[in-house]
UniProtKB/TrEMBL annotation:
Membrane in keyword set: no
Record keyword Signal present: yes
InterPro entries reported for this sequence: Pectin_lyas_fold (IPR012334), Pectin_lyase_fold/virulence (IPR011050), Pectinesterase_cat (IPR000070)
Pfam families with a match to the protein in the record: Pectinesterase
Region described as Disordered: 510-532, 714-738
Residue stretches making up the Pectinesterase catalytic domain: 447-712
Keywords of this entry: Aspartyl esterase, Hydrolase, Signal
Protein name as annotated: Pectinesterase catalytic domain-containing protein
Species this protein is from: Massilia frigida
Species lineage: Bacteria, Pseudomonadati, Pseudomonadota, Betaproteobacteria, Burkholderiales
Membership in a protein family: Belongs to the pectinesterase family.
Length: 790
């Protein structure tokens, strides 16, 4: 049974009669059972401009709750949904509200939009005791001017989720938010129109007809080969296939036809077209792919002054790894262009094998034929100083083949090579290379960003190991000193070691974050309705005995970028698996390390500010390591929190820090903020009853940045109570033998919310064997420094 209200019926119930004078009210659909009662018949502020014709119209104005629409039954989970169109004018936002208790307490989700911006920002927000805070923000590149966008806000217990056009963007868990309250509308700045407002059961998910793991735009050049775009078309259960149609608003520019569970788009001439996908059973369920067709590919003439020293791989290079990156060195920093493309052709028959375009794209990480891959948003063309890096799509180049590269002039602007303005690189310029004859064999795979090696990228070596080595076969990926700008994915490969040439010389880095690729992340099949590759630099799942040795992983995201938020360097997603990190460094500001299962960090450096060690783990031991709190680039007065534990069961040790040092340093970013004295807390709680705040510091040195109270318990900076509320020797927040950096015992008399262990109690968590005794159902695990993976 459909559980929703159409907008006309809802407004007839909820708005004053004078507003409805010119509105046609339709009869409710047969079988509709609304989930609302105690309907309010008043607006929150009768003085605010509010009018209705065929849609609900909200004029531009100051931030305010513009309408209260209904009272939801207590304890009911529900969603509120509406089609929203922004009106021309200043930037503004519109939130669909739920659980509205009063003007000072409610939750909401919606869009922040500006006429000049090619993106919209989806927010989840909470008004708590009169203070409005954004809990999650996600940006999407989407055409919004003059177009209705469907926003849905789900409230299921303490989990709040926002959808855009049927795609689930992100979820925030908010302790204490599951309370009864009204549905409403909040807006500020810009004017909006709303249509088809619905309230219903969140178990009934929206049907989605959209590009599978893809974006809502399509770019090509006139005359390019037809492109096949997989379509995810499923009913709300995510399993039942949904039939769909496709039409082009301008078939002379780009035509589109259905082919099985995909569409074929043929770019024909310069211009734009809307490719409209629609459900056969419910034509109101639609999605639009905005096709932009640029002028036809125009191969430039040969570069006039030669390219010696400017190309990588160099012209006529041999034995090039097939995962090679293309690099151009300019005389000065180039500007990224917005037109043209880079194309790679097979030399033997001029077959086009890859097209790389400027701007964001959705790409798969993993090997061809893998059961599930990691799909992420990325920009394949990057600029670092005077150099530009062009990242071909994975697995397009074969072993033992020769290729040539063509670059159109519009890809880069405002720069020269060897004294001549850049005008593109044509075939006659001779940028050719031949890949190595065969794939490597053996248990050690080498990676170097510019020297002789099996692979140019760490992910290229990972793909080879996952595809060609047995799951239990030990493999070591030996990485030479260099900088590797990439996101990594490991799935289903055990006994895998990534070992760097030196700790500071091997830097694997990227600026991935929750605003760009939201969520912790998970692999998926190619037919999934949206990409869920997540915000971490490295994501590993279903893998045991993964070792990260003698290297640095750095997520370069700054918290001062308000849209960024969480940004892990490592997400180890295996509840029963083991992770080892030795002699390694991990840098980020927020959520640096997220681990499940069992992990051992030995003589490592972990740097961050907010919850920079966290996860739903069982046991994680940080031994002889440095936990460095850095100044918050977004808030100079914040010292942050070291740990947020979500340990899966009360008996599990959780996060144990042994013989380690808690230090502080300047934050990243241009301001290099410092950590104020006494501003950093050892841990805070997520406030959930289903996980445990199991954290123990044993014989650790702590600098003056640690707050005298130690733990951020209930009421400290509005934090919730931990679970258990009262710590003991076996569970909760615990501490023993804490000293200053000089080795002198700390005065712990002001500690609040934690438990001070005795020497005998601390001994139970003071060895690897003790911390990991629960592994393998009690079989235990006792790793040793330098020990090879079994």
């Amino acid at each position: 049974m459909s559980k929703r209200l159409t907008s006309s019926l809802l407004l007839a119930l909820l708005l004053p009669a004078d507003i409805l004078a010119d509105t046609k009210v339709k009869s409710p659909t047969t079988g509709v059972r609304p989930l609302i009662s105690n309907v309010s018949n008043q607006r929150s502020d009768p003085g605010l401009p509010l009018s209705v014709s065929r849609v609900l119209h909200l004029d531009a104005g100051p931030a305010a709750v513009r309408a209260l629409l209904s009272q939801v039954p207590p304890a009911a989970d529900y969603f509120v949904e509406a089609r929203i169109r922004a009106l021309p004018g200043p930037p503004g936002q519109l939130y669909l509200l739920g659980r509205h208790v009063d003007a000072n307490n409610w939750v909401g989700a919606g869009l922040h939009m500006a006429d000049a911006s090619p993106t919209v920002q989806a927010d989840i927000v909470r008004q708590h005791d009169g203070k409005l805070g954004r809990l999650k923000q996600v940006r999407r590149a989407i055409v919004s001017q003059g177009r209705f966008l469907t926003v849905r806000f789900d409230m299921v217990g303490e989990a709040l989720s926002v959808y855009l056009n049927g795609e689930k963007l992100t979820t925030a868990t908010v302790p204490g938010s599951a309370i009864p309250g009204a549905v409403g509308i909040y807006s500020s700045g810009k004017g909006f129109e709303l249509d088809d407002i619905r309230v219903g059961d969140p178990a009934h998910k929206p049907m989605r007809i959209a590009p599978a793991v893809g974006a809502s735009s399509f770019k090509a050049q006139a005359g390019d080969p037809p492109s096949t775009l997989p379509i995810s078309a499923f009913a709300g259960d995510g399993l039942t296939p949904a039939r769909f149609t496709v039409r082009s608003s301008n078939p002379a520019v780009a035509s589109a036809t259905v082919r099985g569970n995909a569409i074929v788009v043929t770019p024909k001439k310069t211009g734009s077209s809307s490719i409209v996908l629609a459900s056969v059973t419910d034509p109101s369920v639609q999605s639009i792919i905005d096709a932009s067709i640029a002028p036809a590919f125009a191969p430039p003439a040969a570069y006039k002054t030669g390219l010696a020293g400017a190309l990588s791989p160099r012209a006529r290079a041999d034995a090039v790894p097939p995962d090679t990156l293309l690099r151009l060195r300019f005389d000065q920093p180039p500007r990224p262009g917005s037109t043209g493309s880079v194309r790679i052709y097979r030399q033997s028959d001029d077959k086009l094998v890859d097209i790389i375009r400027p701007g964001d794209e959705v790409a798969a990480i993993g090997y061809p034929g893998q059961d599930q891959q990691r799909y992420i948003r990325r920009n394949p063309i990057g600029i670092d100083g005077n150099s530009a890096t062009i990242r071909p799509h994975a697995h397009r180049l074969a072993y033992g083949s020769a290729y040539y590269v063509i670059v159109e002039p519009g890809v880069f602007a405002g720069a020269s090579i060897n004294g001549a303005p850049f005008t593109g690189i044509g075939k006659a310029a001779g940028w050719t290379f031949r890949t190595r004859a065969a794939a490597p064999a053996g248990p050690v795979l080498s990676v170097d960003d510019d020297g002789p090696a099996d692979f140019r990228t760490v992910q290229g070596a990972l793909d080879h190991a996952m595809q060609h080595a047995g799951q239990a076969t030990p493999v070591t990926i030996a990485v030479k000193n260099g900088r590797y700008d990439e996101m990594l994915f490991i799935r289903g490969k055990d006994n895998l070691t990534i070992k760097g040439e030196s700790r500071d010389g091997v830097v694997i880095h990227n600026g991935n974050n929750d605003g760009y690729n939201p969520g912790s992340g998970a692999s998926q099949s190619p037919q999934s309705p949206s990409f869920t590759g997540g915000r971490a630099l490295l994501m590993a799942e279903t893998s045991d005995l993964l070792t990260l040795d003698t290297l640095t992983l750095k997520n370069t995201t700054l918290r001062s970028d308000k849209i960024a938020g969480q940004a892990e360097t490592v997400y180890f997603n295996n509840d029963r698996g083991r992770l080892i990190a030795r002699n390694a460094s991990f840098f980020s500001e927020q959520d640096t390390i997220q681990v499940k299962g069992y992990s051992w960090f030995y003589r490592t450096l972990i740097e961050g500010n907010v919850d920079f060690i966290w996860g739903a783990n069982r046991a994680a031991l940080f031994e002889e390591s440095e936990l460095r709190s850095v100044g918050d680039s977004a808030n100079p007065s914040s010292g942050g929190y070291v740990v947020q534990a979500r340990t899966v069961s009360a008996p599990d040790p959780g996060f144990v820090f042994f013989n380690s040092a808690l230090t502080h340093g300047p934050g990243p970013g241009p301001l290099a903020n410092k950590v104020p004295p006494g501003a950093t807390y050892l841990a805070r709680s997520p406030g959930t009853a289903a996980t445990w705040d199991n954290v123990a510091y044993i014989n650790c040195k702590m600098a003056e940045h640690i707050a005298p109270a130690g733990w951020a318990g209930k009421g400290v900076q509005r934090e919730p109570a931990p679970n258990p509320a009262g710590a003991s020797a076996s569970s909760g927040w615990r501490e023993f033998g804490s000293t200053g950096l000089d080795g002198k015992p700390l005065d712990l008399s002001q500690r609040a919310g934690g438990y001070l262990l005795s020497a005998q109690e601390a001994a139970r968590l003071s060895s690897r064997a003790a911390v990991f005794a629960g592994f393998g159902g009690g079989r235990g695990w006792n790793p040793e420094p330098g020990q090879a993976a079994p």
